[in-house]
Every structure is written in structure tokens, then in C-alpha cells.
Amino acid sequence: MPDPLAGRRILVGISGSIAAVKLPLVVSALVQRGAQVRCVLTPSAAQLVSAPALASLSRAAVALDGDQWNHRESRPLHIELAEWAELVLLAPLSATSLARWVHGLGDSLLASVLLATEAPVLAAAAMNTAMWQSPGVARNWEALQAFERVLPLGPSAGLLACDRQGAGRMAEPAALLLALDSLALWGWRRDWAGQQLLVTAGPTREWLDPARCLTNPSTGRMGVLLAQAARLRGATVDLVHGPLAVDPAWLEGLRCHPISTGAELQQRLRDLQPAATAIAMAAAVADHRPARPQAGKLDKSALADAMAAGWQEVPDLLQQLVAHRPAGQRILGFAAQSGDGLQPARLKFARKGCDLLFANPIDGPGAGFGASTNQGWLLGPGDRCQSLAPASKLAIAHQLLTALLALGPRA
Ligand code: CTP
Asked: Domains in the chain: how many in total?
């Protein structure tokens, strides 16, 4: 599977926020993935992160303000860099660099590169909470939302280097890389703006006693990537999830609701369904729960009897969502299939009643629980059956979002 960043020319612009210290790791990861990387530092960033380290990691000279007008070069450096870049990662974006950019100032190398480039820009803000919330910065950030070709990543809340707890932390390196992948695969357009997407992901667990449960190997990767892809396309996203095995940075920017059992998932869906404009039911719901769960840990000699005491079916939550959906709401279901799965998937689609059903094999190479890639069939209205070729789960997520949005609100 080709890496969406391999061979791409990525310009990394670093401005003056302490989060700059995280950028060498990002540059190193990009180079390891086969990208060509060049870095531009503002003077403040150069106080915080080492230009020689970035030059070694990127295998390219680092551009500083003093390099802008070099009489040995035929072209101004800011134009050369702006035109070289296929993608720009602007991280961290400080209050000053934001203000320059939004107000069209080109009084430094990075500022003039930003004015001159026609490449898409992923811009990740980072600053102290009070600075972030100050009216001038808030206005500038608001203005940036309307810029063509820009994917703005607001900061998350947490402990800041100034010892304050609050909004201002730059997106973690793994979140930056995910957003760059999305920018390379899909672009910067926020066609999901105004939508409220509810996504379920990961396994549920049905407890026999406090130490044993019935569950499945779902990692939640497909659902979480779908949630992130929708967020990057402008949606507000609620993610209801069982225990996940994904990078925690992939949860940034999502409203997360952790659950364990099918009953907890059912309750959360009841709370959140009414406000959602669309739902993607990617959770791998454990189908049965013990009829008589035990409050204390069973002795192993009692286990066989406890399991033989019977199991109850967990209600079909997707069918319940379909039965209770408000006007306009669209619902995407998933189907885990083994063997020749298309015919059973068609029956499942008819049984569930959702608008779209993505049926994916869980026993083929490069598909199934925990894999980074996926493939399958997307079943839709009027016997539609679209085959989705093997691709990264993020690429599949974007295809599913495009198909869901194309349906429009349900009449
Ligand atoms: N699902 C659900 N509630 C359940 C079981 C499944 O909402 N109790 C949802 C899943 O989240 C998924 C879809 O139904 O969106 C299909 O799930 P899958 O496990 O493929 O099918 P099942 O209905 O469980 O049928 P089977 O296990 O027999 O294939």
C-alpha cells in the first residue's frame, strides 16, 4: 500500500512556542516514511529547537531569517521554498505568526513563505491559555478558518509548560501525522462542517465475573480513524468507545465517552442519538452476556458451571438506532464477515435497515481486527454494492464519509 506521504515534498514551518521541541520527532518520522522535508525556523523557534538537529534529521539545510536574501541564489528563498512545497506543516503556530499570516504581513522568512505558498497548510496552534483566549488571538484564529487550503488544528487542554492547566497544548506528534495523512489523502475541504457525527468504536465486554469477560479482538482503529477523518472535515464528533488499542493522540479533538458493556453502550446511544445528524456504528458489540454474572471472582472449578448457566443475547443496537432515528439522520453500519461474505452481508443489510453497510472481511490478508488497511463492499440504497479496494483504514474512512454525506439528510 503506498504511503500517502512517501515522496511528498513537505515544508515544516516552526514558530516560537515551547511545543517546537516536539518537531524534531515529527521531522524524523516524516523522513522515515519517505517524505522529503525542509524546515524553516523563526528567530524565536531557533531559540527553542536546534537548527543542526533539524538539519540532520531532515537531511537538508534549515532555512533561517538571515538566509532570505542570499546574493548567491538566483531566486528569493521564500519563493523557492513556497513553490517547492507540496504540503506545509506549520507547527507550532504561535500567536505572532498567526497574526502575521492573517494580516498578510511578510516581514520574516516564514511569514513570507506562508503568503507565497499555494500548497495546503496544516496549522497547529500552541500557546498559553490566556493568550489563546485573548480577543485578538481568538479573532485571528476565527479569520484563519475561512482561508482556502488551510487545515487549522486548535490546541487541546492539558498541562502547559507555563504550569497552567488549560487550552493551549499543540496537537501531539501522532495527531499531526494523522492530520497530514488526511490532508494528503483528502485535502483541506471541510464538507462535514455543521454535521454532528456519532461514532461507536472498539469492543464491548460482557462480564462473567470481575476477572473474566466475553469480548473480541477489535482495536477500535477503523472507528477512531473515521471519527478523526470526520473531525478534520469539519464535523463535531462524539466517540463512544470500548477499550481501545490505538495511539491516545488519535482521540484529540473528539468528545469521548468510554464504555465497557453493551448495556452502557446502549445507554450512551440513547443519550446521544437525538442530536446526531449521522451515526457510524463501528463498535464490535459482543453478542451475548452471561445470564448470571457474578459479583465476586469465581473459583476456576466453578467456571464450567457458571458458563453453562446460560447466556442472553445482547439486543441489536444498530436496529434500535434505526427504529428510533429522528428526521434527517443517516446511519452507517459495519459488518464483520468471514469466508464468502457478500451474500450474508446483503442479508444483514436488509435486516439492520441502515442507510449504508460497510461489509469487510476479517479473515483476509490486510483486513480485519487491528490491521492498518481494510477493504470490502459498501452496500447502499437500491441494491447498490460498491467494492472498496484495499487501502489504509484512513483512506477507507474518507470514502465512507463521502458516501454518507452524498446521501444527504434522510427525508
Ligand atoms: N451490532 C449492534 N448490536 C449488536 C450486534 C451488532 O449494533 N448486538 C452492530 C455492529 O456495531 C455493526 C453491525 O451491527 O454495525 C453488524 O455487526 P456484526 O457483528 O457484523 O453482525 P451481527 O449483527 O452481530 O451478526 P453476526 O455476528 O451473526 O454476523
From this structure: 2
Q: Please tell me if the CB atom of residue 286 comes closer than 6 angstroms to any atom of ligand 1.
A: no
Minimal CA–CA distance to 190: which of 411, 405, 355? 405
Measure 316 CA to ligand 1 centroid, in angstroms.
7
- pTM value? 0.96
Which domain range does residue 375 map to? 196-406
Whole-number Å distance, alpha carbon 409 to ligand 1 midpoint, is 24
Among the candidates 137, 156, 185, a domain finishes at: 185
214 and 111: one domain? no
Phi, psi of 366 (to 5 degrees): 70, 25
Last residue of a domain, one of 140, 158, 185: 185
Rounded mean pLDDT, 285-289: 97
- Closest atom of ligand 1 to 313 CA is 8
Å from CA of 350 to ligand 1 middle: 13
193 touches 267 (CB < 8 A): no
The answer to whether residue 1 is domain-embedded is no
358 CB within 6 A, ligand 1? no
Q: How far is CA 39 from the centre of its chain?
A: 25
Per-residue pLDDT for 133 more than 80? yes
Nearest to 30 by CA among 177, 236, 134, 225: 177
